[in-house]
Fold this sequence. Notes:
Blueprint (H helix, E strand, L loop, with lengths): L2 E10 L9 E11 L4 E5 L6 H9 L6 E6 L2 E2 L10 E4 L11 H10 L5 H14 L15 H13 L5 E5 L7 H18 L2 E6 L2 H7 L2 E6 L2 E6 L1 H6 L4 H6 L6 E8 L2 E4 L2 E5 L9 E7 L4 E3 L5 E10 L3 E7 L8 E6 L10 E6 L4 E5 L5 E2 L1
Parallel strand pairs: 3-8, 3-9, 6-7, 7-8
Antiparallel strand pairs: 1-2, 1-4, 4-5, 9-10, 11-12, 11-14, 12-13, 14-20, 15-19, 16-17, 16-19, 17-18, 20-21
Helix pairs in contact: 2-3, 2-4, 3-4
The structure holds adenosine-5'-diphosphate and magnesium ion.
Amino acid sequence: MRISIQHLTKIFPSRTKGGEAVHAVEDMNIEIPSGQLVGLLGPSGCGKSTTLFMLSGLESPTSGKILFDDQDVTTLAAEKRGIGLVFQNYALYPHMTVEQNIRFPLDNMRIKKEEGNARALDAARLVQIEDLMSRKPNELSGGQQQRVAIARALVKMPNVLLLDEPLSNLDARLRLQTREEIKRIQRTTGITTVFVTHDQEEAMSICDTMVVMKLGVVQQIGAPQDIYDDPNNLFVANFLGTPPINIFKGYTEGGKVYIGGEAVAEAPASCGYENREVYVGIRPEGFIYDAEGAFTLRVDHIEVMGRDKSVVSVHECSTKPTVRSIIDSDVMLPPDAETLRFNIKPYKLFLFDAETEERLR
Ligand SMILES: Nc1ncnc2c1ncn2[C@@H]1O[C@H](COP(=O)(O)OP(=O)(O)O)[C@@H](O)[C@H]1O
Ligand SMILES: [Mg+2]
């Protein structure tokens, strides 16, 4: 099922008299090809759940349209949209067994018992919990409960699967494992899936396409790697990547990019030779150690991490307390150096207008 989101807007009236209305989602436009796993990513409160609720029919838009294939479903009732929903809290019925929980959505439809059982078993197999069918939810781990919730969403064979922070209640190890599970299930079923998360690593690791949001407004849409390598603005650059990108106050002059007094890169053509204030973003992996390098950092300490090492330093132009540079572990650094010099890989350095915070290319 293809999903088309057109000028979708949701404005909640103010909760207090005379207060301001909340623009939860503003003029959102997204085309989701059939069979894709799309991530809605952004900090808490940016409108992810509201978007998902509008897709599901639980919330109605203030304006704009939603199409499933060519059908306009904007005002269609939730139960007629053929949607599977999974939330952060698994919302299983505690008095029912796993099997009863999974089969529950079918019990309201006119489906014969044998067929219902067979479909419940298929869904359970897909999420690999078929051995747990007679257990009650409180006899399951969080990860297993979330699988039951996913099986319950799948049992109706939905056209669209909507997942709202489905991994947030799981511990770190289970979160990793379950996100791979979700990817596998999505691949196997080919169901068009929208996956909401505030965790950029989670979105990057499993999504075909990511939609990065801020305050109800889409900032960028694209493949995870493409957005990471080519962010549209400072917010997106900052939001993606662990450890996060380093940001410096800088300026351009005579065709060069300066941080402090040091020219660290060529300025992009769009800046011309004009003098302007910019933010300079440098990814942690963008530093090449060089005793004669263009950019000097004052070393605080070095963390050894096996595969690579992380030089933690300070710089007066950094907008963050420390600067992090990731260097291959086989690069020999002078011991106990107070300062280290680096060259910057040009494709790991991004410039942003100091006022608008938009990317300068
Ligand atoms: N029913 C509601 N009434 C008023 N404001 C709401 C309601 N639901 C959400 N909001 C507001 O809309 C914004 C987006 O919320 P939400 O979609 O839940 O964000 P997210 O899921 O990204 O954390 C927030 O500012 C939130 O407070
Ligand atoms: Mg939410």
